[in-house]
Batch of 2 targets.
Target 1
Amino acid sequence: MDWQLVADSFWPLLQGGLTGTIPLALASFAIGLVLALLVALLRLSPNPVLSWIGRAYVSVIRGTPLLVQLFVIFYGMPEIGIRLDPWPSAIIAFSLNVGGYAAEVVRAAILSVPKGQWEAAWTVGMSPVRSLGRIILPQAARVSVPPLSNTFISLVKDTSLASLILVTEMFRKAQEIAAFSSEFLTIYIEAAFIYWLFCTVLSTGQNALEKRLDRYVAH
Amino acid sequence: MSHTEDRPTGNLLTARGIEKSFGTNHVLRGVDLDVRRGEVVALIGASGSGKTTVLRSLNGLETPDAGLLEFDGGPAVDFGARSVALGRRTGADGAPDEETAAADAPIDDAPADDVSADDVPAEEAAARSGWLGRRAARRQAKTDRAALRDRSAMVFQHHNLFPHRTVLENVIEGPTQVQRVPRETAVARAEELLARVGLAEKRDAYPHELSGGQQQRVGIVRALALQPDLLLFDEPTSALDPELVGEVLTVMKELAEEGWTMVVVTHELQFARQVASQVLFLDGGVVVERGAPAQIFTNPAEERTRQFLNRVLHPLD
């Protein structure tokens, strides 16, 4: 192993992670969560049309490869006149994807809050929207932290697919360095190590968040 | 005022011919209820008798299929006409008998500030054709439900406190978020109420840190903080350990003495006997017998009442 190369490429790779991978993951996750909440509410709606729309969305997102979704948006859309840069394309594709997967988590978490909480919120005078925001979602949040963390960690790794639509994130950096130096094994293992580092830090963050949200729960 | 004998003056709440089905299960078959200001009404009966459904109908947690609910000062809701407007019932289906006839009569003495029944009478909505009429009726149903709810506050069997909020936050949630009471006012009032039930020092605790009896007392304070006209209790002591029942009943008794109007679904016959001014015994979705506690408990007129009391008071015989 060429340790000099490992040392020389560490900063460029980490930089690709910090300026590409992480911002892409964070932005997509934030937008995806909002989308997931909307889709979850659609699915929970008593209106059969709305609930069908939510179900259809989840079905399409989960039933098609993420890579295909990326390609449809970046390479396909220009044919109907929608031409987007790599970054916006990637953020849109990943957000839509997170929206589909996280919707099921959010829906289950909302359903896990006892019916009595809705009734108590009703009794103190709240509208359904306010009940959801102040009473139900805070309790659902606690339940959904572990599964949503899973989604987020998967997303961090999935962002490597964005290299295929020309986004300069960590894996694309790795490809460039590897092609330049012809040390494929060394560079790709190094990139893998940095992905692992990111995910480990995120898992620690998950534990801390769980602990904080657990403070009002009986043990 | 053609209905004065039917709906006695001085009532805070009048219910006539309340009916409710869950699927094929006909839970309420025409229940009448008169709640005068400042009185305590106890609903007793076996599980499945419909007493909890009656209570939940009073604040919109259940929507009756037929019948009339009228609060003094509004709202007045005619559920039968509305069911027709919503396309749920045709006139012939489940036609009201003489018990519910009152519900079908127009309300001619509803107060002017009545927010619900007078705006778009359900009958008028029914007269409109098609989905527009149904939509208007649905919107009206929502308004009615909320208007009913705003007159009362409920204490649940399983306290249903908000677990992610402290005791104080639970109590001020309704006043500050819904009623727009300034926070300082709401907090001062909450602290006073908590002190009255002996929980002043628990204001910053989370519900799971309290005993069952303390949780239920917070539940009562949360209801009181809304300053409702009517307090509803749904078997408030049924889920408690026996040694914790007393502290909750004591608070309820004090509230009764202070003149709060209360409707209490309870298995605590001792409490009903001491505190209630009116006891209703329900069975099979109808009020079998009603009267002063002394009469119901010592000299019931109906065989079914007698049997129920025997079973509850002498379970080993």
Target 2
Amino acid sequence: MFKFILNRLLQAIPVLFIIVAMTFFMVRAAPGGPFSQERKVSQQILEKMNEHYGLNDPVYVQFFNYLKHALQGDLGYSYKHEGRTVNEMIAESFPVSLKLGALSLLFAVGVGIPAGVLGAVKKNTFWDYSAMSVALMGICLPTFVVGPLISLIFGLWLGWFNVSGWFESGDVVLPSITLGLAYAAYIARLTRGGMLDVLNQDYIRTARAKGLSPSAIVWKHALKGGLLPVVSFMGPALAGLISGSFVVETIFQIPGLGRHFVNAALSRDYTMVLGTVLFYAVMIIIANLVVDILQVVLNPRLKYE
Amino acid sequence: MVNPCNLNVPEERLPSLPIDLNQVEGGSSLWADAWYRLRKNRFAVISLVVFLGITLFSYVGPFFCPYGFEEMDLATRAQGLSLAHWFGTDGLGRDLLARVMYGGRISIGVGFIATAISLSIGVVYGAISGYAGGKIDSVMMRLVDILYAMPYAIFIILLMVIFGRNIVLLFVALGAVQWLTIARIVRGQVLSLKKQEFVEAAVSLGLSDSRIILRHVIPNVLGVVIVYATLTVPSIMLLEAFLSFLGLGVQPPMASWGVLIKDGAENMTVYPWTLLIPSFFFSLTLFCLNFLGDGLRDALDPRSSKD
Amino acid sequence: MPLLDVQNLKTYFHTRNGVLRAVDDISFSLERGETLGIVGESGSGKSVSCYSILGLIPMPPGRIEGGKAIYDGKTDLLNCSEKELRKIRGKRVSMIFQDPMTSLNPFLKISTQLMEPLFIHERMDKKKAFDVAVQALEEVGIQDAVQRMSMYPHEFSGGMRQRVMIAMALINKPDILIADEPTTALDVTVQAQIMEIIKQRQKDLGTAVILITHDLGVVAGFCERINVMYAGKIVESGTADQIFKNPLHAYTVALQKSIPSLHEKGKPLYTIPGLPPVLIGERTGCSFAPRSELPHTPEEAAMDGVFTEVEPGHMVEVHPATVVNYKQYL
């Protein structure tokens, strides 16, 4: 198990390196420096700022300097927010995004799994068809359509929640549902498919022959196997949650990392962009590792490679 | 669909291989069988008709519309639905009908062009990898594995930021991230083909590699490619709209459905129809293409159809 | 009074192509401690008839169209509530299945699966259940039972898994054990061991056994009574002696001829000509007539057979196309 994790982390190093390198050189290849947009800056000050941020060194030197600092956990200063480090900004906004992501995942799992189980157990009935039709709609409707729509309906017309913002505890509801809806739908479909596969297995017949009740069969014998497709979906889902958070945090004006990233990208805040991408990449790698471990825990036939 | 970070169509949604559609079974070719099964699938047919209708509406409609998509008329700002402006007007007095049609042109166009790009990259990459075999193949496929794990949306955002929000670049960038699955499939086909005896025979007869690929690989993967393309178009449209919504895709005064939804979302408190109408068209198109893709899958691969 | 009395059982499957009459009006009974063999080709309805008794038929498409299965003179298994049936399954009537590789849940430990029947039927506490389960494993010849308890099914070989299945089925000391082709999926070398274990456990516990198999050779020397099934019907039933020494139905005769071990070396193995009939739709006449080698006219083939007792305990479906000199039995 320890070896497995270590192995995975070692494999992640080249991936991380490629991501950082691609991002770094893409950013550096951009026409115009980070300070070129500021109008009233004199040539002299521009030189000074470039000097200060090390932008006059050859690109490869800058890259290795950046790598060296990044390895020590130092992502540098923001170009746009004076005196603030990227680390500070991530530390400040990431918990917000994490809360949003965790709540939407909770919503997705809490709605998706029961809906999928219902669909499988009551296969080809009214319940199955209605659950799966709703799920299909949830999948086809993109976040940036759902978000404004439910904020229009539940925020503006019905007045149950604030249209946007991140102040009261009720403010988490609409964004979490918006972000989680597509995943709830996807999980429902995956759960239904997985459960149908499992419910047709011989060992379910064995469990029935033992005298188990239908609920014990579903929850004790079938669910573990039926959830395997859902678990392997969790890796990509987490990566998707990140890009979903860009949209949802923009729609609902939530001060999370996603919105910071979009703003940094729009304002060419290079260090912030680089740092965020690196941070996201590490998050995705950790998430995938957790998913891999979870899969082995759920499925005894898999061994840690 | 669900993951704008990596929209490569998963292999589960594609028919299983190989299906040689020119093969004749019981008197009718598999093309004919597949076409028959598709016509039988009511949802798929409706989806096809609706999608063709929307496409026609977007591309031909503007010729019959008295307003230009960027024509502002401050006298008729933010009007509701009326006979003069069927879909109303937006905050700058632009006719929403004209804008929805024009936006459809861009959105659907992006979807198709980027899909064509992604297919070309994927087929060529997969064919080379499979044909080269050995070390080259394993390196190329390892790269695909790595790329599968990449958060594309982030890279495309970077690209758009760095190189300006250029629409041609957008086409290419969107196409460049969608070729992974198809590359894998084509590679698998080429690999399995290489092992077959008739290919060895063809090689010994001096037939060129490209001829062999053309003759034997293409027919086997054609069915998959069709389904793949049908499902990739909506996923690219989704990514385009995602970027445009963030202000990083198509730039005003040009409009795509993503731009219209963004504008509508900003003004929804005052003129909700500017959000609802483009959202409806966009979602309907995604629905239709996904239904159609699944219908095509079932038609081409009856075994995979879910009961 | 028989332990299990099945009367006029009919199980149909309602498929897209029509009604498949998998079990079409069969009756048989089982005494306490007795061993009954049900023999027939695949698709003859032998498994479906036993699954019907335990309510294990997938419904839909399956449906029990009629009949009774009186257990212990009291409960009709075909017409009682699901709740009552659950109390009988795994407690009074247990079952083992053909493929031990797929019949154990791969996601749960052996201990969990073995102890489950004790929890639901006996409300036993964990510690005691563990001891009982270990003992059950030892009784089917599994060594290091305590260590084995914490393993998963994939760590066992096929024969070992079938032993686990037997231990699990017998853990509540049921009155009836239904063994559905228990050795078909196993290596030849293991088959005899498994049959031996079933026999041994049956002797220890006094359990009645219904052995379902397509191989008349497996039944020989194991079962006291034998039902031969063909196309959803019992065509011949009797004691093992009667079936082996005096088979009357052409199908029983043909089955016997095709037992590999009774067959003379060097000669080609006998195979029954033709294929089993399609069971969809209503059938008239004798289902075996088209495959029977006895001379008969089409008019005779269209006649209905008569299920008759030809000697005490020996019942045969008497029909011109399947029984030699059929008239003497009518």
